[in-house]
């Protein structure tokens, strides 16, 4: 109980000092006193426990596993404020300095800042105050971020392969396996979209069929999320997207992989996958009703041109419209046996061709905002001829991302990669750093994921 009181006192002081920081400057005595007291208190607490982990769950505040008494409106307001910034957890490590605490206290409430708080803290050298998400099943730090996303993604690709094999053998794809994988992808889309989207940007072609299924599912759910869909409906969209091409199990392999233009006969065979897919999905029990609809509709355009032909009048399902954007985008971006994936700026100009009836314009615009011009994980060439990895997008200016520069001018790896905000002008108002173009990881032999 004594602990809970100490924690309660600590969180109240923290909340009060942050409030003070919105009213006074950093050298105001009130703020200084607050910071000093917090530093002493943090280190006293952390002496015993190594770190103070403050979690925010609903209106409740939990410190090192102890729930604080729910009383003061000030704490409830603080918790709400923090959660509004999508922070679920603040960790303060033993040895935290006054400087680190002061920086955190001023950065947290700064609403004008463009970069996310975690990035700003890192840039300002704050090491011992970190923010993050709570992970209820697994408290480990490593359960978030690119490593965790990688694991979910590769499990998803394996599951996609199993679903495919089952459908090909004439069995019914196991909806439970699919559901499980959709659950974890949907969770990641909500919690760590950046990592997941970075993974979909890998241009592998050895298992295109399965990565395509997963990528379309992820890209569709990311769009659905941006339309504020969540829960069961979000997962249903992801499910339908995952299965959109399942009818291709009946398409001859040589037609599927043909590099040249298909003959009339071959194209007719290819077109059948939308009907076959709808059949397979309709007869699979527990498949969401949306799945056969999307499989049937996904090659139809807004004006109902495309295929299947002669279907009479209908309005395309929202999920179909989302999936067809994700589908074309992923197909253009992926490396295939017969051609290199296109860079995202080229894809965007292809997809946004004026007066094209292919896509719903409003959804497409939204999608392009979502993906960005240089999505996180893109390898880019800078104006200095150096190569970098996009680590963060500028919310308002897609041309000016944050980049981790990883080579020198001659393309040799540098020991300490340099993090640059290309949106920041130098002292004379010029932009010292600029992204010139996206480059293919294989062409320069750099795996961008190792830098994320
Ligand atoms: Fe298709
Ligand atoms: Fe597809």
Question: How would you describe what is shown here?
Answer:
The chain has 452 residues and is α+β, with helices and mostly antiparallel strands. The protein folds into three domains: 133 residues, no CATH class; 229 residues, Orthogonal Bundle (Hypothetical protein af1432), CATH 1.10.3210.10; 73 residues, no CATH class. 49% of the residues lie in helices and 11% in strands. The chain contains 18 helices and ten strands. The strands form two sheets. A five-stranded antiparallel sheet has the order 3-2-1-4-5. A five-stranded antiparallel sheet has the order 9-8-7-6-10, with no helix packed on it. Strand 8 and strand 9 form a beta hairpin. Helix 1 runs antiparallel to helix 2. It is globular and about 80 Å long. It starts with a helix and ends in an 8-residue tail after the last helix. About 2% of the residues have low confidence. One fe (ii) ion binds next to loops.
Label the overall shape: globular
Kindly state the mean pLDDT as a whole number? 85
Instruction: Give the class from helix and strand content and strand pairing.
Output: alpha+beta
Strand coverage percent? 5-15%
- How many domains, in number, for the residues? 3
The biggest beta sheet is recorded as: 5 strands, antiparallel
CATH class placement of the largest domain: Mainly Alpha
Give a list of the ligands: fe (ii) ion
Which residues sit in consecutive blocks of at least 5 with pLDDT less than 50? 136-143
Number of helices: 18
Adjacency order of strands in the biggest sheet: 3-2-1-4-5
């Amino acid at each position: 109980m004594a602990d809970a009181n100490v924690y309660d006192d600590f969180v109240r002081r923290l909340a009060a000092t942050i409030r003070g920081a919105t009213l006074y400057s950093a050298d105001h005595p009130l703020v200084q006193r607050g910071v000093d007291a917090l530093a002493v208190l943090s280190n006293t607490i952390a002496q015993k426990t190594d770190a103070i982990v403050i979690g925010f769950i609903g209106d409740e505040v939990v410190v090192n596993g102890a729930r604080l008494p729910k009383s003061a409106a000030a704490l409830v307001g603080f918790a709400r404020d923090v959660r509004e910034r999508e922070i679920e957890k603040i960790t303060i490590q033993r040895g935290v300095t006054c400087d680190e605490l002061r920086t955190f206290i001023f950065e947290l409430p700064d609403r004008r800042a463009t970069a996310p708080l975690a990035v700003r803290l890192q840039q300002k050298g704050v090491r011992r105050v970190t923010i993050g998400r709570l992970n209820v099943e697994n408290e480990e730090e490593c359960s978030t971020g690119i490593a965790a996303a990688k694991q979910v993604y590769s499990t998803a690709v394996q599951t996609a392969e199993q679903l495919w094999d089952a459908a090909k053998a004439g069995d019914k794809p196991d909806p439970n396996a699919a559901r499980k994988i959709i659950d974890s992808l949907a969770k990641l889309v909500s919690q760590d979209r950046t990592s997941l989207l970075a993974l979909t940007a890998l241009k592998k072609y050895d298992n295109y069929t399965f990565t395509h299924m997963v990528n379309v599912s992820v890209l569709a759910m990311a769009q659905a999320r941006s339309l504020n869909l969540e829960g069961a409906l979000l997962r249903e969209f992801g499910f339908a997207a995952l299965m959109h091409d399942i009818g291709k199990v009946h398409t001859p392999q040589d037609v599927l992989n043909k590099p040249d233009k298909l003959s009339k006969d071959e194209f007719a065979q290819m077109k059948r996958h939308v009907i076959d897919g709808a059949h397979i999905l309709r007869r699979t029990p527990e498949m969401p009703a949306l799945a056969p609809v999307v499989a049937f509709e996904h090659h139809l355009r807004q004006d109902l041109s495309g295929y299947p032909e002669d279907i009479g009048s209908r309005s395309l399902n929202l999920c179909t419209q989302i999936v067809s954007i994700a589908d074309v985008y992923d197909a253009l971006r992926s490396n295939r046996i017969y051609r290199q994936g296109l860079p995202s700026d080229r894809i965007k100009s292809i997809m946004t061709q004026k007066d094209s009836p292919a896509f719903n314009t409003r959804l497409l615009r939204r999608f392009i905002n979502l993906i960005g011009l240089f999505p996180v994980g893109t390898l880019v060439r800078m104006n200095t001829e150096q190569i970098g990895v996009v680590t963060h997008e500028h919310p308002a200016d897609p041309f000016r991302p944050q980049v981790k520069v990883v080579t020198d001018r001659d393309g040799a790896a540098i020991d300490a990669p340099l993090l640059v905000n290309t949106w920041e002008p130098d002292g004379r108002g010029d932009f010292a750093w600029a992204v010139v173009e996206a480059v293919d990881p294989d062409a320069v032999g750099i795996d961008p994921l190792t830098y994320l």
